[in-house]
Amino acid sequence: MPVKVRIPTPLRSLTNGEEEVTVEGKSIKEVIDNLETNYNGFKERLCDENGQIRRFINFYLNDEDIRFKDNQETAVNDGDQISIVPAIAGGL
Fold first, then answer.
1. Which of 7, 52, 65, 76 is the most buried (most CB within 10 A)?
2. Is the entire prediction scored with pTM above 0.90?
């Protein structure tokens, strides 16, 4: 199932500057695996050594945080939109 993935600015060097790419996958995990297949180096930036999404990386499926769904096992459907959003910290 093709889904659109919005790429954050810090990762666009992996997609030749593309802001949005289309990849196949039936779950978030499959989408991440296919991002790695198509754009080498993606998975190591998104996932830790155990294959889990890093704490400071947020995934949204059609504007819903996947942490409140089935995390990496969250099913995706044809035409869904996934946003990858790095957490931002700061303050005084």
1. 76
2. yes
Beta-bridge partner residues of 61:
64, 82
Query: Looking only at Cα atoms, what is the longest distance across the chain?
Result: 44
Beta bridge partners of 23: 3
pLDDT at 88: 74
Residue 90 has pLDDT above 90, yes or no: no
Write down all domains in the chain, each with its CATH number in brackets: 2-86 (3.10.20.30)
Is there a contact between 2 and 26 (Cβ–Cβ < 8 Å)? no
Q: SS3 sequence, the chain?
A: CEEEEECCHHHHHHHCCCCEEEEECCEHHHHHHHHHHHCCCHHHHHECCCCCECCCEEEEECCEEHHHCCHHHCECCCCCEEEEEECCCCCC
